Amino acid sequence: MNTDRLLIAGKAYNSRLLVGTGKYKDFAQTRAAIDASGAEIITVAIRRTNIGQEPGQPSLLEVLPPAQFTILPNTAGCYTADDAVRTLRLARELLDGHALVKLEVLGDPQTLFPNMPETLKAAATLVKDGFQVMVYCADDPIQARMLEDIGCVAIMPLASLIGSGMGILNPWNLKLIIEQSKVPVLVDAGVGTASDAAIAMELGCDGVLMNTAIAGAQDPVLMAGAMKKAVEAGREAYRAGRMPKKYYAATPSSPSGGLIGQGSK
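RE: above sequence
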């Protein structure tokens, strides 16, 4: 039995890997990658993916039914607080009152960096409206604390720009956010390969969310499996507690005293 589970908004999950559903070649590949990843929380861009708002068209929910996965609607493509709030209210209607959502308000279409004033504004409105808000944000410890104070259920700082695959560019800020937060902290954006996910978990993140790192791989299904293993290994390494780094001297792996053939005096 897994006793080290991810707890978000009062619900426990076995997997600490959250996966997006965009950029795959078709729904069949999407499902295969999700299965290989072991992810239980699946994020869906409401402005780009049909989950019922286009009757008669193929729906992602036919491939990833809410009975099997926690669907996490997100506001990808929103650039104002008003647009984000409107999008998530639509998602709540489509998902029969579903309250857990991922908020992201972007600053511009080139960098996709978060617009933090609008993000804070949207978060306050959504929390007041009864949503459980997981929030994409800059790796700024002060603004992360503000989002937590508003009532967000998870803080999701970027590792680097969305879709860049650059990995964790500022581990020090990320560590500051982890150390101060009383809600889960999940790296969101910038992961490129399995080692990036492992590093995030070794730093003490509660989980990792990714999309392009899997969907953009030459073999998305194989990469999804690699990411699953990386998140699990990184979490175990964090819990185990790594040996201290020593820059001043080598330390033998085996004890130097009492060697065979070493005479006593």
